[in-house]
Specification:
The protein is α/β, with parallel strands linked by helices and 407 residues long. The protein folds into 2 domains: 8-201, Rossmann fold; 211-401, no CATH class. Helices cover 32% and strands 17% of the residues. It has helices at residues 8-11, 21-37, 56-73, 91-101, 115-123, 155-160, 184-191, 211-220, 244-258, 312-315, 361-380, 394-401, and strands at residues 44-50, 84-87, 112-113, 131-134, 165-170, 196-201, 237-240, 261-265, 279-282, 285-288, 309-310, 320-327, 331-333, 339-341, 383-391. It has a 6-stranded parallel β-sheet with strand order 3-2-4-5-1-6. Helix 2 packs across helix 3. InterPro entries: AAA+_ATPase (IPR003593), P-loop_NTPase (IPR027417), SLFN_3-like_DNA/RNA_helicase (IPR018647).
Length: 407
């Protein structure tokens, strides 16, 4: 019986892990950029673009550890005595980075902050910021959000007004809510007036899948349909299930063998933020959605969550060994074999909260569809060793099975 180590997520982001030569060169380049611009009129910005699984967070972990080591131990460094922060707007990922900080001599848990907390502390004169490293910058709020105690208009703009150097990683295909609606074009418009550099990561590190399967996922989530590859690759387990319960049983078996295997789902099933249990039912399959995780351990590493269904809010940014994804009622196939998105069947009310600057109905519809497709992309790319798929829509499930042996 495999026991998931308590530090499985942190081990994959540890600054002690070796980097590839290309990653090491990128860390050197950003570090030089940081020290060059630190004492010049700011802010200066460095943006790293890359799809899910391309190693963005690993690069940031190494970079921030190096920045803080220089700030706290190297008296002759331009960074000596600077006040620097690592920011992330995802509560589950925040736990991972704080756990990492607790084991590194030059990192403190207080170095890891949520953007709103730091913005509010700076505005109150309690902190200042020299260098900011921002993971998952596509999750930064781009409108006021009273629920999160953010009363500005854009979190990145607020941070640019206070810091000297800002490093962000950004993936517009992982934008999941209207209140954090971003595109590369919007980011570049903010960077344009200040000194900046960009770098794009392309190599897939997370998934042991073939390049063809990764391309298929990217095509599928841009509504460019083609038959699912017959194989996910030599070292990757790709299956389509006609029965969600059988998929659950297979994921349980994988979890017993290698750990970190979970069922996840898109929206489209009962879900309300009332701390009650809401269930996904597909035939004999009947499991509750993930619950809010009050522990310091990431959701996927809690043993009991094998009996829950993960969402984008617990799984984004995390590696699973095997992922079983349920494509819910909003995702279907029409009679012409075109992928269609049924917005009226989407049940995540938080995702589509109104924003006053998006008023064109056609544009808003397109953006909402893009957010749903992004959620599929995020969930499909969680699995390191395997991807199992079940589609609620019978026509879509049949299409996915074409040319394959049904699991």
């Amino acid at each position: 019986m495999f026991t998931t180590p308590s530090n499985a997520a942190t081990a994959k982001l540890s600054p002690l892990l070796p980097l590839t030569p290309a990653q090491a060169q990128l860390v050197d380049r950003i570090f030089t950029f940081t020290t060059t611009h630190l004492n010049q009129p700011g802010p200066a910005m460095f943006a790293i673009y890359g799809d899910a699984g391309t190693g963005k967070s690993v690069v940031l972990a190494h970079l921030f550890n190096r920045i803080q080591e220089a700030a706290r131990t190297q008296a002759t460094s331009p960074l000596a005595g600077t006040e620097n922060y690592f920011l992330v707007n995802h509560p589950e990922i925040l736990k991972v980075y704080r756990e990492i900080a607790g084991h590194q001599p030059h990192l403190f848990k207080k170095d890891i902050q949520r953007p709103t907390s730091l913005i509010n502390q700076i505005s109150q004169g309690k902190r200042q910021a020299d260098v900011l490293v921002i993971d998952e910058a596509h999750l930064l709020l781009s409108q006021p959000d009273h629920y999160n105690n953010f009363y500005g208009h854009n979190q990145l703009a607020s941070l640019m007004a206070t810091a000297k150097v800002i490093i962000v990683v950004f993936d517009e295909t992982q934008v999941l809510r209207l209140k954090s609606y971003w595109t590369e074009q919007r980011l570049e418009a903010l960077m344009a007036p200040v000194p900046h550099e960009v770098y794009r990561l392309t190599h897939q590190f997370r998934m042991q899948a073939s390049d063809d399967l990764v391309r298929w996922i990217n095509d599928f989530t841009h509504q460019r349909l083609r038959p699912l590859p017959s194989s996910g690759g030599t070292n990757y387990d790709l299956r389509v299930f006609a029965d969600a319960e059988k998929m659950r049983q297979a994921i349980v078996a994988r979890n017993q063998e290698v750990g970190l295997s979970r069922i996840v789902s898109t929206s489209g099933y009962p879900s309300t933020l009332d701390r009650g249990k809401h269930y996904i039912t597909e035939g004999a399959f009947h499991l509750p959605w993930d619950q809010y995780n009050y522990t310091a351990t990431p959701w996927a590493e809690l043993p009991q969550t094998i009996n829950e269904v993960g969402s984008i809010y617990t799984c984004q940014g995390f590696d699973l060994n095997y992922v079983g994804i349920i494509l819910g009622p909003p995702i279907g196939l029409d009679e012409h074999e075109h992928l269609v998105i049924h917005l009226d069947r989407y049940t995540d009310v938080e995702a589509f909260k109104r924003r006053d600057d998006l008023t064109d109905p056609q544009e808003l519809t397109a953006i909402k569809q893009r957010l749903i497709l992004n959620s599929i992309n995020v969930l499909m790319k969680r699995g390191v060793k395997g991807l199992y798929i079940y589609a609620h829509d019978p026509r879509l499930n049949h299409y996915l099975q074409q040319g394959r042996h049904l699991a």
